[in-house]
Amino acid sequence: MSVLELSAMTWEEVRDLDRAKAVAILPTGALEAHGPHLPLGTDVIIAEAMARRAADKLSARGYDALLLPALGYTAAEFAAGFPGTVSLRPATVTALIVDVASSLGRHGFPVLAIANAHLDPAHVASIDAALAARGGDHLPRMVFPDVAKKPWAVRLTEEFRSGACHAGRYESSVVLAARPDLVREGIRQALPANPRSLATAIRSGQKSFEEAGGPLAYFGYPADAGAEEGAHTIDALGSILEEAVLARLA
Length: 250
Ligand SMILES: [Zn+2]
Prior knowledge:
The chain is α/β, with parallel strands linked by helices. It is 41% helix and 9% strand. The protein contains nine helices and five strands, in the order E-H-E-H-E-H-E-H-E-H-H-H-H-H. Helix 2 packs across helix 6 (169-178) and helix 3 (90-106) packs parallel to helix 4. The protein is globular and about 55 Å long. The structure holds zinc ion (ZN). The site of zinc ion (ZN) has 6 residues, from helix 2.
């Protein structure tokens, strides 16, 4: 079976797909400040890498994996003060995901998996709200493994689990593996560590990267990143999505 890109297909090709063996995958990221060394689209790059790896794994298991164009606009209030960040209202994001899902459901696709790499709590809540929506008969089954939570987080790197997981070693490594041309290497290699835990800051009620102790919009250890670690992380993310889909279909 195949990995297919929906936007590159014709409607007749989509009509002829075997629905029983089709899994649609929506990567979700953000347009958001990621330190002085990574592009605004970092989370989209990570989500697309996760989606593509999961698609490879699912197609090897006999499914047609249908990659949707990424959702690259979402709620990103923590980074909203940094130039270039675009932040939508969470209700807009929920409506968008529900509408995408119901269009796929209308055309008979049974499963929509979300490959998410953006961990802003308002964004994650907007996906959870879409999953909870009862939007009529058309909605496909939705799969959304939240990689920051059990059982998935233990599969990811130590820095990620520490909560210092924005534009640090974890994300920088994935971008070095997926789009090395977009990493400002001279800047990255000279960046001092910022070991503040963004996850702890969020739990204690802080609302922005600046408040959380990230005045340059990064946390963690970007100078320690490497492409090899990034390749491992992409594989782990792909396995997480694959396993979540298989569990839902079982
Ligand atoms: Zn990110």
